[in-house]
């Protein structure tokens, strides 16, 4: 796929990995529809940066925990740009209190809604809006850590495992017009609010990553662009963790 002139919708596009994906796609010539939840100021900043690269950009806020709000995203993007060629499901929730004993039904429902139901809804609507004579691409951002079961982040892990399998099933369902792939991320960025990001990432790499190299968003954006440029790859999830979860 030649990305110039394509339209990409990125959920969670205002901050962190989502933001990096927006800018990478804009640099590649894509117009960008930037979904965000509450990060209005950050989304406005990334919109301005994308526009400075010569592409069209728009921000749109919707609560992915609400299925009605989620259902407005694709129609709004199509109304704005006339089409969507690329969907990147990047938004996710990662609650610290998500242990088995602590996870009540309300928290379970919220995590499942944002991490699994929203990508399903958006992918389904993306496929519906795509004309029969067009090809499309979906990328699901996942978590490399689910390769090894653990007791922490109980419901979160289950949703990400579901997203991994959903990527394969959708790839079969939506072929041949739409490819569906994933990126499973290891420690790509420091925790939000860390006072010394560089030191955190270097220490983490020394302790946990076999390659001893800190993660970074360029690893993610380069891999996303690789997936978008491939026409003979679908149903795959590429793990970007420096070997941590082998």
How is the topology of this model organized?
Elements: E1 7-10, H1 16-27, E2 31-36, H2 40-52, E3 57-61, H3 67-70, H4 73-81, E4 86-89, H5 105-129, E5 136-143, H6 154-174, E6 178-185, H7 197-208, H8 217-229, E7 237-240
Parallel strand pairs: 1-2, 1-4, 2-3, 4-5, 5-6, 6-7
Helix pairs in contact: 1-2, 1-8, 4-5, 5-6
What does this structure look like?
- The protein is an alpha/beta fold and 246 residues long.
- It has helices at residues 16-27, 40-52, 67-70, 73-81, 105-129, 154-174, 197-208, 217-229, and strands at 7-10, 31-36, 57-61, 86-89, 136-143, 178-185, 237-240.
- The chain has a single domain (7-189, 216-240), classed as NAD(P)-binding Rossmann-like Domain (Rossmann fold).
- β4, α5 (105-129) and β5 form a beta-alpha-beta unit.
Quick tags:
single chain, seven-stranded parallel sheet, 8 helices, alpha/beta, Glucose dehydrogenase, NAD(P)-bd_dom_sf, oxidoreductase activity, 44% helix, 246 residues, SDR_fam, Rossmann fold, oxidoreductase
Rg, rounded, reads 17 Å
Looking at the structure, the CATH topology is Rossmann fold
H-E order: EHEHEHHEHEHEHHE
Choose one word for the global shape.
globular
Instruction: Compute the average pLDDT.
Output: 96
Q: Output the CATH homologous superfamily.
A: NAD(P)-binding Rossmann-like Domain
Biggest β-sheet description: 7 strands, parallel
Structural class, by secondary structure, is: alpha/beta
Return the CATH class.
Alpha Beta
Beta-strand fraction estimate:
15-25%
Counting structural domains, the number is 1
- Helical fraction equals 40-55%
CATH architecture: 3-Layer(aba) Sandwich
**Which runs of at least 5 residues are low in confidence (pLDDT < 50)?**
none
**Separation of termini?**
31 Å
Structure annotation, total helices: 8
């Amino acid at each position: 796929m030649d990305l110039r002139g394509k339209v990409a919708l990125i959920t969670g596009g205002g901050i962190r990995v989502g933001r990096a994906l927006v800018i990478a796609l804009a640099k590649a010539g894509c117009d960008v529809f930037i979904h965000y939840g509450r990060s209005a100021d950050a989304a406005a900043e990334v919109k301005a940066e994308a526009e400075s690269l010569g592409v069209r950009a728009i921000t749109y806020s919707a609560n992915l925990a609400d299925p009605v709000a989620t259902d407005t995203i694709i129609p709004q993007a199509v109304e704005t740009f006339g089409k969507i060629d690329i969907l990147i499901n990047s938004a996710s929730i990662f609650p610290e209190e998500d242990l088995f004993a602590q996870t009540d039904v309300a928290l379970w429902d919220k995590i499942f809604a944002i991490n699994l139901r929203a990508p399903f809804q958006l992918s389904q609507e993306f496929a519906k809006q795509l004309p029969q004579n067009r090809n499309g691409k979906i990328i699901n951002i996942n978590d490399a850590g689910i390769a090894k079961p653990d007791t922490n982040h109980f419901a979160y892990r289950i949703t990400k495992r579901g997203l991994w399998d959903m990527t394969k099933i959708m790839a079969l369902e939506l072929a041949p017009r739409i490819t569906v792939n994933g990126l499973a991320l290891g420690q790509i960025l420091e925790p939000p609010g860390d006072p010394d990001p560089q030191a955190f990432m270097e220490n983490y790499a020394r302790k946990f990553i076999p390659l001893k190299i800190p993660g970074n968003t360029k690893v993610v954006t380069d891999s996303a662009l690789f997936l978008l440029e491939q026409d003979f790859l679908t149903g795959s999830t590429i793990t970007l963790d420096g070997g941590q979860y082998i």
